């Protein structure tokens, strides 16, 4: 018996662009139909002065809506993003460690060294401080 080689299908670029245009038109048409049906069949709401208030529970709002958040929240978010991405890359490397060999090992070590160097730099410049350091009051002698 002879060997059977798979026959490759030659795809013309014009047919793929036509398919893409058809798919895009179909998606946009579906979105238009769904928005139109929700506008026609959805409930009508009449916005009153009481309904425009931020709280409809009868409590009169006090103060402004602009609140200043502490930079601590930003710092926690940045730590999460940095360490979450690091964990993703190290986990992906760990799964493919045998296939990548020494080249992959060197690459992940360079990646970790750059992250550690950045962390040390931020630590030494004080960017990771939660709050200004408290200074002890000078000894008062009476």
Automatic annotation (TrEMBL):
For this UniProt entry, what is the primary localization, expressed as one broad class?
membrane
Sorted UniProt keywords = Cell membrane, Membrane, NAD, Quinone, Translocase, Transmembrane, Transmembrane helix, Transport, Ubiquinone
* Reactions accelerated catalytically: a quinone + NADH + 5 H(+)(in) = a quinol + NAD(+) + 4 H(+)(out)
Q: Which GO terms describe its molecular function?
A: NADH dehydrogenase (quinone) (non-electrogenic) activity; NADH dehydrogenase (ubiquinone) activity; quinone binding
Its Enzyme Commission number(s) read 7.1.1.-
Membrane topology summary? Multi-pass membrane protein
> From the record, what ranges are coiled-coil?
none
> Where is this gene product found?
Cell membrane; Membrane
The main enzyme category here is: translocase
Which GO cellular component terms, listed alphabetically, does the Swiss-Prot or TrEMBL entry include? NADH dehydrogenase complex; plasma membrane
Q: Which residues cross the membrane?
A: 20-41, 73-96, 102-123
Instruction: Name the job this protein performs.
Output: NDH-1 shuttles electrons from NADH, via FMN and iron-sulfur (Fe-S) centers, to quinones in the respiratory chain. The immediate electron acceptor for the enzyme in this species is believed to be ubiquinone. Couples the redox reaction to proton translocation (for every two electrons transferred, four hydrogen ions are translocated across the cytoplasmic membrane), and thus conserves the redox energy in a proton gradient.
Q: How does it assemble?
A: NDH-1 is composed of 14 different subunits. Subunits NuoA, H, J, K, L, M, N constitute the membrane sector of the complex.
Q: Which family does it belong to?
A: Belongs to the complex I subunit 3 family.
The protein's name in its UniProt record: NADH-quinone oxidoreductase subunit A
Provide the species name.
Fontimonas thermophila
């Amino acid at each position: 018996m002879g060997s059977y080689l798979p026959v490759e299908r030659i795809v013309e670029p014009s047919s793929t662009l036509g398919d893409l245009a058809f798919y895009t038109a179909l998606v946009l048409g579906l979105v238009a139909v769904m928005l139109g049906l929700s506008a026609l069949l959805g409930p009508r709401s009449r916005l009153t002065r009481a309904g425009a208030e931020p709280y409809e529970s009868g409590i009169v709002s006090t103060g402004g809506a602009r609140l200043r958040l502490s930079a601590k929240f930003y710092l926690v978010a940045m730590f999460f993003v940095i360490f979450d991405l690091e964990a993703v890359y190290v986990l992906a490397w760990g799964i493919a460690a045998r296939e990548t060999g020494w080249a992959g090992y060197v690459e992940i070590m360079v990646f970790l060294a750059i992250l550690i160097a950045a962390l040390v730099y931020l630590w030494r410049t004080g960017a990771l401080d939660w709050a200004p350091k408290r200074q002890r009051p000078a000894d008062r002698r009476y």
